[in-house]
Amino acid sequence: MSAETGGLSAANVSLRLGGRSVLNDVSLEARQGEVLGLIGPNGAGKSTFLRVLAGLRQPDTGDVTLDGGRLADLSPNRRARQIAFMPQNGGSPPPMDVSDLVSLGRLPFGSDPANRDAIAQAMEETGTVSLKDRPATALSGGELARVLLARALAAETPYLIADEPIAALDPAHALSVMSLFCALARKGRSITVVLHDLTLAARFCDRVVLLQSGCIAGSGTPAGVMTDAAMRDVYNVDVRRVEGAVIPWRLVRGVDGKI
Amino acid sequence: MTRHPDCRLVAALLAGVIALFAAALLWGETALDIPAALHDLFAGRPTIGAIILGQLRLPRALLALLIGGTLGLSGAVLQGYLRNPLADPGLLGVSSGAALGAVVTFYTGLAATSALALPAGGLAGALLSVAMLIGLAGQGGTLTLLLAGTALTSFFAAMTALTLNLVPSPYASFEIMHWLMGSLADRTMTHVWLCLPGIVAGCALMFSTARTLDALTLGEDVAESLGFPPGGLSGARTRIVLGSALAVGSCVAVSGAIGFVGLVVPHLLRPLTGHRPGRLLFPSFLGGAILLLFADALARLIPTSSELHVGVLTAIAGAPLFLWRVIRLRRTGS
Lengths: 259, 334
Hints:
Chain A: This is ATP-binding cassette domain-containing protein. The structure holds two protein chains of two kinds. Chain A is of the alpha/beta class. Chain A has a single domain (8-257), classed as Rossmann fold, CATH 3.40.50. Helices cover 31% and strands 28% of the residues of chain A. The longest helix of chain A is centred in the C-terminal third of the chain and has 16 residues, at 171-186. Chain A is globular, with a radius of gyration of 18 Å. The N and C termini of chain A lie far apart (40 Å). Chain B is mainly α. Chain B has a single domain (4-332), classed as Orthogonal Bundle (ABC transporter involved in vitamin B12 uptake, BtuC). Chain B has helices at 4-26, 34-43, 48-82, 94-107, 110-113, 117-137, 142-166, 170-180, 189-207, 210-216, 220-225, 236-255, 261-269, 277-301, 310-332. In chain B, helix 3 packs antiparallel against helix 12 (236-255), helix 10 crosses helix 14 (277-301) and helix 13 packs across helix 14. Classes of the chains: A alpha/beta, B mainly alpha. Chains A and B meet through helix 2, strand 6 and helix 3 of A and helix 10 and helix 11 of B.
């Protein structure tokens, strides 16, 4: 994979944190028109890699490029208009109204007349219109996750990078968000998501990248990457398959020897 | 994304500032023929009326407006940046540094040599503490900034106590105690000119962070992804530290320490601005000006044996306001 390709590409990215190697020679490309799933066990380096890919952290070696140019050379505002980033949902939200919170996604655009429509559409797509006058502090975990997603979508960037966006959602909302990602990708956007739900990853992602201990353990179509052997090796679980979907079924051995 | 309620709030606060500013000029111990005094003032005739209006009431009202506004604004900026509603301009150690600088001029007797020595000493103390704060906090995060501010506050407070302890004459220690209480009495236009550059530059830096503060409500990663990196030389952190330190240091240098304005004003106005920290800045400037103009009017007009210090009044008013917030919090749980 070369740094010269289009799309959002990471080439040979390595990073050490606190003396520990967190990412080791990771390369991947997020293409427009597809949903790319980043999977791997806890501590594999997925969230750190997403931050590097979003331009929020510089790798020790390697480079991230956007449409052939170095991402680090873009001004913060240009980058914000290209890439929307949704971190893992943590901590309590600010006590502002939902519509105000979603409108934060339009901050890079100043007082653009398109702001109002973009905010309305993002709230429509995420099913959050009925919440618009509620304070964000009064939302359930799932509602808040959808509002934060609406915030990221409101920027209407060609690239969306989301860290576990469906972790707090019930099955119906998780399915609807993954369908929304597919629909956005079909319209030409590039969606990169960290997922722990292997079933949904296998069903909805066009490609998956499997990370293990900061290294790429597999990359390609879900069927090609999420093999029984890979799941057993990386996740330490046996899986069952139902119509192509992967269902984690049984531990192979105790996690960290404790169970 | 400005909304009409914001315009109404700003208009109401502006009306309050104008009314209180006018009242500060019109009312005082001496009854004045205001039109005649104004006429003399603009004509440059040194009549009693013109002197009272131009050299006593005007600088005092201007200082109340500027200092109250600065304290309200820097409280709003620091609370937004640190995402901590208890943040206060005194937190960075700059107020204590300015106070120490002023106290040293009392100790050394410099304060008696020139009316300017005291505020100049305060300003020097403020600038020194800004340099120390930036040197200590550097490019660290909010925790580093808080720790550095706390360390500086403790250090300067200890040095002030030491100076008080060693001060040779009881008269000087009495003067220091009075100055530390914070007051706008007997200030001249020279004081206004002395603190104005720091206040204007500092407030401009703080106002420039409004959109970054909005972006920061969802954390530093999101702010950076929205194109507002909080760190770095041009980042919000540098502008906030430098801006609030310059502006607040300049204020303390001429007025002494005036507490609670920076803490209370953003608290009271936050629910009226949709909890958007960027939208809170200008209303907080106006609210701070209103609070200090009002407190100074009380300090001048309440008949006591010696004039009340405005810093004492704001502290007296601030505590019940917080108690009221605690009671509301317990009642509503929000």
